[in-house]
Specification:
Low-confidence stretches: 1-6, 10-19
CATH class of the largest domain: Mainly Alpha
Strand order of the largest sheet: 1-4-5-8
Number of helices: 12
CATH architecture of the largest domain: Up-down Bundle
CATH topology of the largest domain: Butyryl-CoA Dehydrogenase, subunit A, domain 3
Distance between the termini: 62 Å
Structural class: alpha+beta
């Protein structure tokens, strides 16, 4: 294995810079901390950025086009993501994880997306939704049972959406029935489930008390080999094709009482909280994608593509487009890092996460689309990555809350602030 694929986890563990671990209600005191740029990285975060960038460029990039064409994640890439510590970024070292902070995960997600958004979203969902769910709501036994596996060898999948329950996530029909012995039976189906083909662990949301509406929703931990669980269909998609998206079915899946995550009827609270954090991860994926598309095109027009006797990138009209796109990327990154830092500081960040996801997905679509035009024919063919970046960008306005859902969230919070 190349030196670039060595785990950064061990190197980071030796770092003297440690980020304080905060509870949800314990704000970070920054009185004595000098003002710094929003995108300033600690020593640990900067090391993460460098190591993941090197790993992505040297290990993932050579396989990116092949995985896209095959519509399948290379098993060796998955294995190396675990070896690099990328699947347990916030999991404490005592459970086999890297023991780092939320922004470190955001940095990793962004750097992976500069090369391959499919690999990026695999690690994003695993870290910001699944691992976070266990860390925040799991019992000590649940943490000991699952976190070491999730950190080292088992991919996690987040199962909320259903055929008629997308943006209206809490209209879900999957049913959980409690048995006399305290165990549960789950029946129903889930759709658009990321990581489902490769996952060994599923976090499933089901309604235990439909008469209570969304307040009847509970969350359950489901191992892949549980009888009654099945992958019904793998979707063929426009973009992020190497990332698996499947329909799963639950046919009287029997789970022990210990499979309940947290408390009965609080699944909707967990889902809301997790998705609010997860949107920052998706926003980071989109800014990384936009920067990757921009860099790919910029290098081509400033070094290779010539028209009328000079490099295309030397024409003022092209320079202005490149400058405008780069400015928008940096503005989006500012929103992403601001949301991440506010989350870490224990401040309210829901509107910031929504704005970051909304704007970064818009920028990713614009920049990746423009990049194809800047590159001309080479941007349109599948020999390079330009058209792949554009295809991969489209999902940013859809999953973990559509752009309209983000706008609604932002507007509601603004209305609350400016009325009454």
């Amino acid at each position: 294995m190349a030196s670039s694929s060595r785990p950064f986890m061990r190197a980071l563990a030796r770092s003297t810079v440690r980020t304080p671990k905060l509870s949800a209600c314990e704000p970070l005191d920054i009185t004595d901390i000098p003002p710094t740029p929003i995108t300033h990285l600690s020593e640990t975060e900067a090391l993460m950025k460098d190591q993941v960038s090197k790993f992505a460029s040297e290990v993932i990039l050579p396989k990116s086009r092949e995985m896209d064409e095959a519509e399948k994640m290379d098993p060796e890439i998955i294995e190396q993501c675990f070896e690099q510590g990328l699947m347990g970024i916030e999991i404490p070292e005592e459970y086999g994880g890297a023991g780092m902070n939320f922004t470190a995960a955001i940095v990793a997600i962004e750097e992976l997306a500069r090369v391959d958004p499919s690999v990026s979203v695999m690690t994003d969902v695993h870290n910001t939704l699944v691992n976070t769910a266990i860390l925040k709501y799991g019992s000590e036994k649940t943490k000991k049972d699952w976190l070491p596996q999730l950190a080292t060898n088992t991919i996690g999948s987040f199962c909320l959406s259903e055929p008629i329950s997308g943006s209206d996530a809490f209209a879900l029909k999957t049913r959980a029935t409690k048995q006399p012995d305290g165990s549960y039976l789950l029946s129903g189906s889930k759709m658009w489930i990321t990581n489902s083909l490769e996952a060994g662990f599923f976090l499933v949301f089901a309604n235990l008390d439909p008469s209570a509406g969304y307040k009847g929703i509970s969350a359950f931990l489901l191992p892949r080999d549980t009888p009654g669980f099945a992958i019904a269909k793998k979707e063929k998609k426009l973009g992020i094709k190497a990332s698996s998206t499947c329909v799963i079915t639950l046919d009287d899946v029997h789970l022990p009482a210990s499979a309940l995550l947290g408390r009965e009827g609080e699944g909707y609270k967990y889902a809301i909280g997790l998705l609010n954090e997860g949107r920052i991860g998706i926003a980071a994926q989109m800014t990384g994608l936009a920067l990757g598309a921009w860099e790919n095109a910029a290098r081509y027009v400033w070094n290779d593509r010539r028209q009328f006797g000079k490099l295309v990138g030397e024409f003022q009209g092209m320079q202005h487009q490149l400058a405008q796109a780069y400015t928008e990327i940096q503005a989006a990154r500012g929103l992403v890092y601001n949301a991440a830092r506010k989350k870490e500081a224990g401040e309210e960040f829901v509107a910031d996460a929504a704005m970051a996801k909304l704007f970064s997905s818009q920028v990713a679509g614009r920049v990746s689309g423009s990049a194809i035009e800047w590159m001309g024919g080479m941007g349109f063919v599948r020999e390079g990555l330009a058209e792949k970046y554009w295809r991969d960008s489209k999902i940013g306005a859809i999953y973990e809350g559509t752009s309209n859902i983000q706008l609604t969230t932002i507007a509601k919070l603004l209305q609350k602030e400016y009325t009454g």
